[in-house]
Amino acid sequence: MSKTLVTTPAALAALSLATALATALATAPAAAEPPPLKAHARPPGQNAGAASSPLMRPGRSARYWTPGKQAKAKAVDLPLSATGGGAAGGAAERRSVPGAKRLTPEGDANGYARVRRPYTADDSSRVTGRLFFVNGSGRDDSCTASVVRSASRLLVITAAHCVYSSPDGSGEGRWHTHFAFVPAYDGRADTARQREPYGRWGGRRAWKPDAYTGRTGGDWNSVYDVALVEVGGRNRTLQDTVGAFTPLRNEGGRFTISTAGYPGVLGRRPYDGRDQLWCLGRTQQAREEDAEADMLAARLAGTDARTGRMETYNCHLAKGHSGGPWVVRGSSDLVGVLSSGKEDGEPDGNSVATALNLEGYGAIVHEADPQGVYDSLSLDATGPDGPVRRGGTATVTATVTMHGLMAAAQVPVTVTLPPGASLTSVNGASCRRGDRRAECTIDVIHPGRPVRLTAKLAVGRDAGAALPVTMHVTSTRLDPAQRDNSAVVRLRTAG
């Protein structure tokens, strides 16, 4: 089984410690079991919660991250895989993404290419930036983050291991401090204004799912590895200044995505944190065998480990890109943040992202953005104005609308008929149709862009005087009002 890699120096050190511990445990007597992982277990069906950091001073954090400190962040190189082979000879011999799997135009052996400068010229590269912080061990570190739509207009999204971790040798997690987000960061610029074209935004508070413990071997690459950071305000908000991605609720699956970020291995140009790099990939559901820790955390929390994460074999992550956005190609739909992947040097490199899932993102977004409206779905149904003839046909239409800030994937809609009527077709979504019930799935729905489903039905000659047709859209617990998720069209019959 391939190893996985989390992409901050503190986590790499913890990974080495965990490997040593695992070796010791393997040779210990059977009775000498390790202590249980603190995965914040919840009974099945109980809603996930959020944890927040202490309040911080944005101005102090921004001042801490001088150009000199930025340049020295993330000085620890990636570990070489114990099973990868061929990597000890240096960077030129490192095997990663095979040529046939590279989709990025002019992509390198990892599948990445440089983003065209200036980063201010493109919506995606402008929204993406480098997130600096002091980790739980007190060392200067960085990840990638991006601006995500919110009512506060001050939120950036990243991986949970970028805001919270267990210091070396410690079993208890600690919040990182001194967050500073630099959108469109350009570490090779000649002037301060070019290096930080939109300034340095100090962090005020961070949020993570309370089920995220930060312990290597527990949930550091799980469905909970997602976080939000609120930055301090100015005359204009961060979102007004650079724009934002639209969060797209999903549980993983197949997308064509582009991801950008700041891999930060000092001395390994262009992977030294000074360039924004990007990669094009096709995703699939993350496989169970790559997520043993995730499986354990999911079992303890009463969730399904096969959902909530996705992977690509077209891009091989590098340290510093953690938290980088996975955006549906050709759109502003954010479907996940980079979390983990195989160690450097393995021949079939990959990247794994935490989807903007209900257990992770859904757990933190309402706490971080209490004024925001998320996953607010409504359904309106219409039918013929006059009576329908027995033995004839009728058409009813369901209009499904998403309100607020979030888009959603794989939204279920059902159409149910009473006795005396039967379905002949349903259009507008992918449907499994029976005689009197259709179970449909809307691929993607966006705020302000309604989706219409049209059902054609046959009216039996023995139909009653009234035929109630029920239509329902399923939303999640994020929906503030689910009373408008169902509608009934009452058809009157004649003849």
TrEMBL record:
Top-level taxon of origin: Bacteria
UniProt key word Hydrolase: yes
Annotated signal sequence is: 1-32
Pfam families with a match to the protein in the record: DUF11, Trypsin_2
Q: Which UniProt keywords apply?
A: Hydrolase, Signal
| Gene Ontology molecular functions | hydrolase activity
Catalytic EC class: hydrolase
Protein name, entry field = Trypsin-like serine peptidase
